[in-house]
Amino acid sequence: MTEIVNKQSATGNTSVAPGRSRRRIGAQLAVGLVAGSLVVGAAPQAGQAAPATVTAAAPAASTARQVQAAEAAALRVRTLEVAYSAAAAKAKRKTVALTFDDGPSKYTPQVLDILKRNNVKATFCMLGNNVGPYQKTAKRIVREGHRLCNHSRNHPDFTGLSSSSARSQVVWTQKKIKSVTGRSPQVFRFPYGASNSRTRKVVRDQGLRILGWTVDTRDWSRPGTSVIVSRAVGNTRPGGVILMHDGGGNRSQTVAALDKTIKKLKAKGYTFVLA
Fold first, then answer.
1. What is the mean pLDDT of residues 249-270?
2. Which residue of the set 151, 155, 245, 246 is catalytic?
């Protein structure tokens, strides 16, 4: 509760909040001193009498205008502070996530090596059928702090599956990844990005978040290392999610493009986060 003190006036007692009163008086004094609206006696010289009073040299209207000007200046400062804070927050949001689909495979350890050298974490959307043959790699993904993602058992188009078949794909892969790595994915990515309301409900009923992407490098088509880099870097915007592949075919171009992609994005001020 704000303490209220009584101030005696000619017409009676009035209640004034001390903080508000002090701020108003302080602002008036500060403006007056800066603008020269108050004249304060100088320190007396030897043999001179000290000044007895402090007199107001400017009319009340002038003082009010000075107070208004000071308040307006303070408002401008606060506006600049808000703008600066917003710009800083926007800079902090300049993030991007790397994601790799269809592994693990023989290319995944090379991808992990590059990520480790660059101190970058990524999300690996793994196929259940690939986890068994590459158990060591799957465990390394977890050990090095990357995120696991369920990408189905064998990459079917979910829009052509019954609800029970879709559920089987999701549940089987969850169990397989958990049995090998000791961790259960919390994220699911549909093969081909193909889904409908029915299959999305199946996935969400398993407590999984659905992961999409904003940048498709189409690295699976082997367009060339420089093209993969150009697509990844040129199409990335703050908060972007880049789709690449560490499995499903020959991924040597993806491996060759990865280091350059990371370095170019860092040079543009991006921070890498998990999807």
1. 98
2. 245
